[in-house]
Amino acid sequence: MSLSELIAQKERALVERWIDAILDEHGVGGKLWRQQRDPFANPVGNTYRTELPHLLHAAASPEPPGTAAASALDAVLRVRAVQDLSPSQAVGFVWRLREIVREEVPGASLDDLAAFDRQIERLGMQAFDVYVRLREQVFQLRLNELKRSVGGLLRRWNIEAGTLDMVEEPPLITLNPVGGEIRRAGACPPTASDCLGDSAGDEPPPYGGEP
Questions:
Q1: According to the model, what pLDDT value does residue 211 have?
Q2: Band of the pLDDT at 40, cuts 50, 70, 90?
Q3: Would 94 be classed as within a structural domain?
Q4: Are 94 and 42 in contact, with CB atoms under 8 Å apart?
Q5: Would residue 107 count as lying in a domain?
Q6: pTM for the whole thing?
Q7: Residue 128 burial (CB < 10 Å; 0-12/13-18/19+)?
Q8: Domain range for 99
Q9: What number of CA atoms fall less than 13 Å from residue 133's CA on the CB side?
Q10: In the chain, how many H helices and how many E strands?
């Protein structure tokens, strides 16, 4: 019997062991998520129970991971990207499955185990790419929230001091993707011709006048 057939026979036990191993990382929170089966009261545990079977099928399949595996990785890593986990911890749950399968499914052939390991490696690398993308989104959300909080605080401060009309809000600082330099919003780019018109040496025409 092939490894994929043995995994199909023990799918429920494998998924439960995989979930337990993941929830153990979360300490007290993991215990609560393990006990609560209501998907609305326990969205984290429900995500693991819903998505991990798709990843198990992808690992047991001889085909490269498809859209179902990609969607499952995205859902699981959305949970883990906002938690206090290192990158290796966040994506390490993929490699845990390799240990669980070897313990729960003894007697598999070496060729089947080697193919299974290759699938785990593919899923692990894909998981890391997804995690990096999600962490960038989390960072951007937090940065935007910080900007809104600081802007509101400065405005409230100026209102209380009676200087709202005299104090300008600080310019928005952006990172120029070309060159990587930091630039204030509205500032001219470093190329003179971009600021001065067709000729870098000409003075810009006065407002309403002829060049």
A1: 47
A2: confident
A3: yes
A4: no
A5: yes
A6: 0.67
A7: middle
A8: 3-135
A9: 11
A10: 9, 2
